[in-house]
Specification:
Elements lengths: L1 H19 L13 H20 L11 H38 L1 H14 L4 H18 L15 H27 L6 H25 L5 H4 L3 H32 L2 H8 L1 H14 L5 H26 L10
Helix pairs in contact: 1-9, 1-11, 2-7, 2-9, 3-6, 3-7, 4-6, 4-10, 5-12, 7-9, 11-12
Length: 322
């Protein structure tokens, strides 16, 4: 049981790191838009999906119409829908305020997850929850300053889109975990592959609509390697690491850990994102950012310790698929 716990924790932390790579996307795609990047990323991920599917034995018994439709629906909610709302929030509310609101995701997940599974008494979660909240406030402390508000076009549109993104990701996390629990005999790799293929199909279906709305720059700047080579390289790299690796790791964590603990671990995405952003901007963190990251990490470590002591070490494990 200890091994299962540590595998779940490691998978959740890797998923957080993989998802945090999204924060560096605007700095590596040049003149292309985030929609161009998403198209390349999801199509590459969809091409990897069949390779994963048919590397598993007896995969055909899992490829039912019900499973495929459910995976496509989850891909729409957690990937395409989430991407569109996050992008819209960043466009209207700016690149600082939108991520600040997305910091609510692990908090909402932890509260809802613990309410549903009763993994731990609420009093045991108060200290790590408080640390995570304080850490998020410190890390996002510049969001509502004059400097952070410079790029805001419309809070009335951007903030609702950011809140919609929070709702979609929470919905996806809970629905995905319930889907895995209802399919105990399905390998995590197969389910991940179905979601990856679903996301790629949906992005291809969205392309004509997005192109008509001038959301894609590929038709203007060109599809050739000389023009779009950087986009293809980074899109493929993050598709393999962030999308394929992140989805697979999150599914393993969802099977191995209670929702409340997985939610606490995913908050480390913010810490990874801050570190990545500092690296891209080639600057040292401010004292407030250092304090925020340290407090966030302290909250995550304390959460792991509490869950291990109360649930796993006592032999009273509440797994995600129970």
């Amino acid at each position: 049981m200890d091994r299962l716990f540590y595998i779940g924790v490691s998978a959740a932390l890797f998923a957080a790191f993989a998802f945090s790579l999204n924060f560096v996307v605007p700095f590596i795609i040049g003149d292309y838009s985030t929609f161009d990047f998403a198209l390349i990323r999801h199509v590459v991920s969809a091409l990897v999906g069949p390779c994963i599917l048919f590397s598993e034995k007896g995969v055909m018994r899992h490829l039912t119409l019900r499973n495929c439709l459910h995976a496509i629906w989850l891909a729409f909610v957690g990937y395409v829908g989430y991407f569109l709302t996050v992008t819209g929030a960043a466009l209207f509310a700016g690149p600082v305020i939108a991520p600040a609101f997305l910091g609510l995701v692990p908090i909402v997940l932890m509260v809802i997850g613990n309410q549903g599974q009763a993994s731990l008494p609420w009093r045991s979660l108060m200290v790590p929850l408080a640390l995570v909240l304080v850490g998020l406030v410190l890390v996002n402390g510049t969001a509502f300053t004059a400097e952070g508000l410079d790029s805001v076009q419309s809070l009335w549109i951007g903030v609702p889109l950011a809140l919609a993104a929070v709702g979609l990701w929470v919905w996806f996390a809970l629905s995905n975990q319930a889907a895995l629990a209802a399919r105990p005999d399905m390998p995590s790799g197969v389910w991940s592959a179905l979601i990856l293929v679903g996301g790629g199909v949906l992005m291809l279906a969205f392309y004509p609509i997005g192109a008509a709305m001038d959301l894609f720059r590929l038709p203007i700047l060109g599809f050739g390697w000389s023009a779009a080579g950087n986009l293809y390289v980074w899109g493929t790299t993050l598709a393999l690491l962030a999308t394929v690796g992140g989805v697979w790791a999150w599914n393993i964590a969802s099977r191995s850990l209670p929702v409340a603990l997985a939610a606490q671990l995913i908050v480390s995405e913010t810490a990874f994102g801050v570190i990545g952003g500092l690296f891209v901007h080639a600057r040292w963190p401010t004292p407030i950012e250092v304090a925020g990251v340290v407090v966030l990490i302290a909250g995550v470590v304390l959460s792991v310790r509490i869950f291990y002591d109360r649930q796993f070490a006592s032999g009273k494990t509440v797994l995600a698929n129970e």
